[in-house]
Amino acid sequence: MAKVLVVDDEPSLRDMLEDILSIAGYKVITACDGKDALLKVFLEKPDIVLLDCSMPEMDGYEVITHLRKEPKFMNLPIIMLTASEGESAEIKGFTSGTDDYMTKPFKAPILLARIKNMLERKKLSVDSNPLTSLAGNSSIRTEAEKRLNLGQHFALLYIDISNFKSYNDKYGFQNGDEVIKFTADCLLSCVKNEGLDNDFIGHIGGDDFIVITSLDTAENIASAFIREFDLGIPGFYTEIDKSNGYVISYDRQNNAKKFPLMSVSVAIISTKVSNITHFAEIAKRAAELKTLAKRNEKSSYVFERRK
Length: 307
What we know:
Elements: E1 3-7, H1 11-23, E2 27-31, H2 34-44, E3 48-52, H3 60-68, E4 78-82, H4 87-96, E5 100-103, H5 108-127, H6 137-149, E6 155-162, H7 164-171, H8 173-194, E7 200-205, E8 208-213, H9 218-232, H10 239-244, E9 246-250, E10 256-260, E11 263-270, H11 271-274, H12 279-293, E12 300-303
Parallel strand pairs: 1-2, 1-3, 3-4, 4-5, 11-12
Antiparallel strand pairs: 6-8, 6-11, 7-8, 9-10
Helix pairs in contact: 2-3, 7-8, 8-9
C-alpha cells in the first residue's frame, strides 16, 4: 500500500483528498502547513506528496526547496496543488522542483491517474540499472510472476557475456561499461525487430541480462542477438588483440592466461516445456542451462527441450 502525504491548510480539502485516496487503496497521512509537512516527510517517509503551494508561514515552494536539499528526498515525487492559473505559476512550481502541477478544482480520476503513473515511474527508476536504464531484479521477478499467475506460457532468455572479466581486467571498467551498454543496445534492437510489443528486457546486473518473450519468437531473438553482438564486439579490442583472437590476462589464481574474445551464452527456458509455476524454478533452470551454453567458446544458445 503506497503512502501519500496530503499537505493543505484547508481542513475540508484535506478531508476530501483523504477520502478519495483511501477509497483508491492508499494509506493517507495529512499535514496542515509547511512545517508540519517537513516533519511528516521525515517521520513517515511517504511515497508521494500532494502539496498545496499557498500556505501561511511556509508555503509549498519553500517546502520543496527544503526537501530537495536532502539527498534522501531529492527524488521524492511531489504533485503541487494550486488555485493559481497561468504560465508563471507553473514555471515557478517546476523551477522549485515539483514533478507535476494541478490547478484547483481538479477531477479525482485525473489526480488518481497522475499519482498512479508517478508511483509506477518511481518504482521503475529506483529498480532500474543505472548503467543501462533497463529494469532490475525486482521488476524482472514481478513481470515473470505476473505472467505465471495469469497462466501465460512464455520463454525466458538468460544472457551472459563470456570472458567479460578478462576484458575488464585488461581494458578497464570504463571500457567494460561500454561493452555492457553495447550488449543492452543489441538486445533492445533485436527484441524490437524480432519480438513482440509486450516483450520485457531486464538487466540483472554486471554482464547478465533477461528477456521475456513468447515461445515462438525466443530463438529468433537469440539468433539475431548473437549475430549483432559478434559483429560489433571486435570493435572493442585493439588491432593486435583482435588479430590474435585473444587477450592475455590473469585467472583467479593470478596466473597469466590467454582468454578468447568475448562471446555470449544464451539459455532459453520455456515455462511450457518445464511446466514451471514459480520464478525460483525459472532462475534455477536458467543457471543450469547457462552453464551448458558456456561450454562453447563461441556465442551460442541452448533451448530447453525436455518434456
